[in-house]
């Protein structure tokens, strides 16, 4: 497992961190929005397990806009 | 002085004529009801008045007004708002779009929202509003720029009985201050607040006039006489030279040119051997008039 | 002018409250940092993840700073543009389809103010996102690959932002002209399809609006040919004005398609 420590986490961390923020923003928006296209629980799963793409897809087609 | 004059207004979509050559005018500070079944062309007529649709032919004129959109307030049947704006933000925005200056827009928005009963919901997002609240906000946005003419498309038909009552009362109040043209297919509403009735059928204006005038034309006054038995009723009808119509033990006697009078009718019955339970003078309800004027469309 | 201000205010509120002003820059930052970091540590990461046999030697190409900026631009040009287009292509058409536009159109509204406010805010949000993405990319590139000349980078960024302006003008004009689905299909076909076409046979064509991103990158390198660049720049400005005029026209002529 020594090689895992060789990975420069200090530099990779921002990538993961931004992705996390994006996910949190998507989840906050989901909890506040009154209607989504499709069931909300499905979007929770897509956002959490869909990584970057999950959050993007939620913002583009998940939000019901009016 | 006439506020708005509509002449020979026609709208066709493809080869379908939705509004067919209608003409009417509206006096200031009156209420006009546009009555007709679904699909009669009410919404299309209102859309042309708002300028959303352009007419195929005919004209809409308002004395001394260039852009009619600035003096009209419109409430569609299902008003849609931006769910992410609050009631106050929304009303302020549309007031400014109608040319009201910033300070005034805020002031007038607050005032009108309180007036329609949304004072407690000024800062709530419209996305959270119930049907009744949306209708109130719809009325507020239509009134905020103090329009000369208020156009309402089926203002209460989407509401439950309580909401309907509340909005009707609100409209009756507004009626005193501005000119209203509204469409409806609910006769009771029209009966409550109207100076002029316009009956639409299949895009044509089939009848117009004040409630009194239309009534006089269509009410068909009759005497309703109830006899003790149906034999008696039939006997009376066969002996009489009057226009009679028998329904069980009831006889309807048509009144033509105010003849016969109640006095004559009572005299005639008093001097006969018929036994009578009741007699009254009846007229057609607006509902019946509506069916007569508009309903025949279905059978055509 | 005052209508334009009111409408811009409305659009900005929408962008803020729907988190567009937050998530779009985040997506671009993510796209921007992924290339410098992943390329630099590719070997380490592959080793750590495993799967490289003992004694296996892989020759990693030596990247220059300009190469990495170009790689980030490649990300913006594919995923980035699709996300931007998909986000803004409904900006006018959706309001007509869901009926929220009706209560605006019955007012004495200027269709130029309406279209320009939509385009202005879409472009603003897109530019903020792209600038954030490049800033993030540049930060890591400078740390890991060495310096980039400032004036060249600014020239490149300005040229690329003109391209973004153009793409957003096309997107919003399409939104004014068609229903959302049709507008999205057409815009993505034109922008992404054109970009792919340009990358395949671009070397045979010297003048086309799709050249803008590649010529912006050329500004970073030492050898670039400035003759066609000016022509492409003028062409893009011309197209920008044409898209805006078409958009305003379509806004006006399609106003009656709003749901009542």
From TrEMBL, chain A:
Its main location: membrane. Residues 21-63 form the Cardiolipin synthase N-terminal domain. It holds the Pfam family PLDc_N. The chain crosses the membrane at residues 6-29, 41-61. One of its GO terms (cellular component) is plasma membrane. The keyword DNA damage does not apply. It is found in: Cell membrane. Keywords: Cell membrane, Membrane, Transmembrane, Transmembrane helix. This is PLDc_N domain-containing protein. It is a multi-pass membrane protein. It comes from Ureibacillus endophyticus.
TrEMBL record, chain B:
One of its GO terms (molecular function) is ATP binding. InterPro entries: AAA+_ATPase, ABC_transporter-like_ATP-bd, ABC_transporter-like_CS, DrrA1/2-like_C, P-loop_NTPase. Pfam families: ABC_tran, DrrA1-3_C. PROSITE patterns: ABC_TRANSPORTER_1, ABC_TRANSPORTER_2. SMART domains: AAA. Belongs to the ABC transporter superfamily. This is ABC transporter ATP-binding protein. It comes from Ureibacillus endophyticus.
TrEMBL record, chain C:
Keywords: Membrane, Transmembrane, Transmembrane helix. The chain crosses the membrane at residues 21-43, 63-89, 119-141, 153-174, 181-209, 229-251. One of its GO terms (cellular component) is plasma membrane. One of its GO terms (molecular function) is ABC-type transporter activity. It comes from Ureibacillus endophyticus. This is ABC transporter permease. The lineage of its organism: Bacteria, Bacillati, Bacillota, Bacilli, Bacillales. It comes from the Bacteria.
